[in-house]
Design brief:
By secondary structure, the protein is of the alpha+beta class. It has one domain: OmpA-like domain (60s Ribosomal Protein L30, Chain: A, 2-Layer Sandwich). The C terminus is likely disordered. It comes from Legionella pneumophila.
Length: about 270
Amino acid sequence: MKSKQKKTEEHQDSHRWVVSYADFITLLFAFFVVMYAISSVNVSKYKSLSEGMKSAFNQKDQNKATQSTDNLKDGPEEKKTKGTFKDGLDELNKSLSELEDGDFKLNRQEGWVEIDIKAGSLFDSGSADIKPEALIKLMKLAEKIKNLPFTVVVEGYTDNVPIETPQYPSNWELSAARAATVGRILNGFGIANHRILVTGYGDQYPITDNYTEAGRSQNRRVNILITKNRKVDRILNPDLSRLHFSVISNTNSVELNKKDTKIKDKK
């Protein structure tokens, strides 16, 4: 009798592990489903952020090479816009010079410091959505000025090629949207919103001609103006930014004249 009871208990116990095993398999399946869902949703964002970080940190050495070649090209022209001013912005200008590269250019004048940023480094064509890699540069800029009591004016510009989309009926809307995007980002990185002014000028105030893609690329830009005084003439007259780019404009004009001469000769 005892032996039968023992065999029956052993037979019943032998199947209890199936319940625990089934629970384990279910939990394991749920775990992998969650992990797959997380990885599939965010992989593109992580990839974009990773590329942006690499781009930002790899530019340190490139900036040195770019600055050295710029000094050779510009020569004495740089002395016209860089030097000692009496507005107390020299230290800021020196700090911001660390951000200069092929896409970020400083324009130093009495009463203000202007950062000229190529729109192509911030946005895709016809878009006001910021590129992930541009966030790193704007974050560094905000870190340098967020604790200083300066006014920050963000200006958007385009080339003269018309745009007509439901979102941006004209270049005014596109330039204003791009300036607003940069303004919001700077605000998010710690610059108080009452210090930020945003405006869009469309294709007005070009710094060079629009006859070539190189010229149009320069005119598609976002300018960030930093000043102690909101009444500085530069805010009321964006055309003053031409002071820094007169050499570029003159060079392009000479090249265009040469091309026109060649065309006439062929005719």
